[in-house]
Amino acid sequence: MAAALALCVAAACVLPARSALLTHGPPLAATPRAAARLPRVACEARPIPLLENQEEYEALVASAQAENRLVVIKFFASWCRACKAMAPKYTRLTEDWPNIEFYELMFDNNKKLCKSLGIKILPYIQIVKGEEGIVESFTCGPSKISRLQEKLEEHGIVDKPDYPEFTDVSSLLVD
């Protein structure tokens, strides 16, 4: 009895396609070959807010600093081919990093702001790390998305539980 599972391509999560989760036997996608046969459905991507103007940009940076939040801002243009090619990769990153806020700002409507920030090549990325302010600013095209990934790993917030390395149970073994 083969039950089908729908794999979410964007978020890499597994969603039941039918109510056949009560089957017995090995997992359906135990091998890459079996996983390739499963039907794929796309999940709706997390929307990326668009900053409309310089005031919204400055308010976002100020609130991120005041509230100690990690924020990524992508500067792009509607006519930029590299920006269009990078868009799906940037969207994928938003799903890989749910604890980080991602925003976009369109160059077309904010040339004065971009000039004041020294942005000359698009797409351009800024990372705001809470109280530290803007910690990274760099050009990041579609072939350099791994650089953004590395920067997120460097500055990203990782919640690690504070578990002891070992638990002493010797007192529980006394008869």
From TrEMBL:
<protein>
    <recommendedName>
        <fullName>Thioredoxin domain-containing protein</fullName>
    </recommendedName>
</protein>
<dbReference type="Pfam" id="PF00085">
    <property type="entry name" value="Thioredoxin"/>
</dbReference>
<feature type="domain" description="Thioredoxin">
    <location>
        <begin position="27"/>
        <end position="157"/>
    </location>
</feature>
<dbReference type="GO" id="GO:0045454">
    <property type="term" value="P:cell redox homeostasis"/>
</dbReference>
<comment type="similarity">
    <text>Belongs to the thioredoxin family.</text>
</comment>
<feature type="signal peptide">
    <location>
        <begin position="1"/>
        <end position="19"/>
    </location>
</feature>
<keyword id="KW-0732">Signal</keyword>
<dbReference type="InterPro" id="IPR036249">
    <property type="entry name" value="Thioredoxin-like_sf"/>
</dbReference>
<dbReference type="InterPro" id="IPR013766">
    <property type="entry name" value="Thioredoxin_domain"/>
</dbReference>
